[in-house]
Design goal:
The protein has 390 residues and is of the alpha/beta class. The protein contains ten helices and 16 strands.
């Protein structure tokens, strides 16, 4: 492949990518409310002459057919914004009060539209499906909505990318293995017996039992798990009691689990139930535990990772090794359809204002990098005779 030509094509659509990204940034919409965003994407794709389907009320899948039959590659970008009031003073500042693209989804969407412009004019075998996905920031997942109608059936691989403001522009992380954590919600209700604060012997203090459970849960990671297969449990809320001189009859806590091995959840659930139940019993109380599975882990396919490295090197990008993040991304669900690869792309702007911060922004040169990498990977993948050849 002539990678220099790919870079030239990415350079040519760079002004369009910047203009489009700034439009999305100025007009952000929350998860499952991306109606204007969806209309804008559809209009742009119609102007390019690219057919589309809409599997859900918001979100789009565009279909680019090559010169002859072949493999099918999906490329995903998320389109939703966050409930944050933007504090940046820029010409493209959010015009929707209390809503902001504070995670770079505007860049993802713009880069994929610019990639559509590039691929539309190239010859390649097979098919590329461009997935403009809603509701990444919301559970249940927008990825499931995109998959629900069968429009992604038959994909041989699906790739996605996320810009990261703490990584320098021009850098990529496409390593194999776990990249983003799996998650589950933890709900624990402790049942005791209410009573007078001055007469604890007549009561069963749910608050004390809950506090002991909270502390004992912290030993799960340090004493029960292999250090090479880690997990973390965080109890984020604890509610108990109604007055200072009343021993609480009930306490309720909620938390989150994060882990990188999708097979680890049964062990974690069994440990939490045992720790909570036995600790509560030590205080004459009872514990009811509910574990609600969330998103699976994002795990990069090793063969796709090799191809991604080739594409990064071909366009002149630099490769970084980045530790797996305990954040989550519903891109993980696409692995139910096909092997997946999730790239982290440097968008270094100001690391003191990280993702989900009201002053978050990015270096727009990352758009050019994303377009070049999407294009290079797609052409390399589709020109490969069969998935097994990777």
């Amino acid at each position: 492949m002539d990678y220099s030509n790919v870079n030239q094509l990415a350079e040519a659509v760079f002004p369009y990518a910047v203009e489009t990204r700034r439009h999305f940034h100025a007009h952000p919409e929350l998860s499952n409310q991306e109606f204007e965003t969806t209309r804008y994407i559809l209009q742009e794709l119609e102007n390019m002459g690219i057919p589309c389907v809409t599997p859900a009320p918001t979100g789009v899948i565009a279909v680019l057919s090559g010169r002859k039959p072949g493999k099918t590659l999906g490329i995903r970008a998320d389109i939703d914004a966050l409930p944050i009031q933007e504090l940046n003073e820029v010409p493209y500042c959010s015009q929707n009060p209390g809503v902001m693209h504070a995670c770079g989804h505007d860049a993802h969407t713009a880069a994929l539209l610019a990639t559509a412009r590039v691929l539309r004019d190239l010859e390649f075998p097979g098919t590329v499906k461009l997935i403009f996905q809603p509701a990444e920031e919301y559970f249940p997942s927008g990825a499931l909505a995109m998959m629900s109608g069968g429009d992604l059936d038959g994909c041989d691989a699906i790739i996605g990318a996320h810009v990261f403001s703490h990584l320098p522009v021009g850098s990529f992380c496409v390593e194999p293995g776990g990249k983003m954590a799996a998650s589950a919600s933890v709900n624990i209700r402790v049942k005791g017996k209410g009573g007078h604060g001055g007469m604890p012997h007549q009561a069963v203090d749910a608050t004390v039992a809950a506090a002991a459970i909270l502390l004992n849960l912290q030993t799960l990671s340090s004493r029960e798990l292999d250090v090479h297969n880690p997990a973390v449990i965080t109890i984020g809320t604890l509610q108990a009691g109604t007055a200072k001189n009343i021993i609480a009859e009930d306490a309720f806590m909620t938390g989150t689990l994060r882990y990188f091995d999708n097979g680890l959840l049964p062990q974690l659930e069994a440990s939490i139930r045992r720790l909570a139940g036995h600790t509560a019993a030590a205080f004459r109380a009872e514990a009811e535990v509910e574990i609600v599975p969330g998103l699976p882990a994002v795990v990069n396919d090793p063969s796709l990772s090799q191809l991604a490295v080739k594409a990064v090197q071909g366009i002149g990008g630099s490769l970084l090794s980045v530790k797996p993040s305990a954040g989550v991304d519903d891109f993980a669900y696409y692995a139910q359809k096909a092997p997946c690869l999730y790239a982290q792309i440097g968008a270094g702007h100001d690391a003191s204002f990280p993702h989900h911060n009201p002053r978050f922004d990015l270096d727009e040169r990352c758009l050019k990098q994303a377009v070049a990498w999407f294009t290079a990977f797609a052409l390399d993948f589709l020109e490969t005779d069969a998935p097994s050849a990777l």
